[in-house]
Specification:
Blueprint (H helix, E strand, L loop, with lengths): L2 H10 L2 H8 L4 H8 L5 E11 L2 H7 L6 E10 L7 E8 H4 L14 H5 L6 E9 L2 E10 L2 E9 L1 H12 L1
Antiparallel strand pairs: 1-2, 2-3, 3-6, 4-5, 5-6
Length: about 160
């Protein structure tokens, strides 16, 4: 993305959401703290699929490579989901240390990813149909994968209310 386009995109981001889109560390822990200790993962779909061309390029992998994709909603202390998460694990990563992520069920990826480690992370922020999204390409124990987190309207409303208090 060109610098001018990137700056224009950043200027469109709601101020209260910027800190969340650019925060480092575990979003799981950050949401849990915000929600007073409440956090829940609700898996939506898990399936094998081919990497999208852009994702393959970002991870330096062939685009015809198969990946395991997990989509889920992340909840805080409200009934509506706060974040729609999508994790993309190339098969090569699942044959290594990242294989644990394929079988975590309703556990958050962040609890494993940030446990006694600080993975290398490249990040980009984009606006998708569902909302403002941060995409992170992690390198963890030599495994590369993408975690995409879209902040939903219920989360934006919650943090706006917190600011007003």
């Amino acid at each position: 993305m060109r610098a001018a386009a990137k700056l224009q995109l950043q200027q469109q981001i709601p101020e209260a959401l910027k800190i969340w889109l650019y925060a480092s560390g575990s979003l799981t822990q950050q949401l849990t703290d915000l929600a007073g200790g409440v956090f829940k993962v609700q898996p939506i779909e898990e399936q094998y699929q081919r990497l999208l061309h852009a994702d393959a390029q970002w991870m330096n992998m062939p685009h015809q490579h198969t990946s395991w994709v997990r989509e889920s909603y992340l909840y805080g202390c409200e009934d509506a989901p706060w974040v729609k998460a999508k994790s993309i694990f190339p098969i090569l990563s699942l044959q290594s240390r990242a294989r644990i992520f394929q079988h975590i069920g309703k556990k958050p990826i962040g609890w494993f990813l940030f446990q006694r480690t600080n993975p290398v992370c490249q990040r980009r922020v984009i606006l998708l149909e569902d909302g403002w999204t941060r995409q992170s390409c992690y390198t963890w124990h030599g495994c590369k994968f993408i975690v995409q987190e879209t902040f939903l309207p219920a989360f934006e409303r919650f943090i706006q209310q917190k600011i007003k208090q």
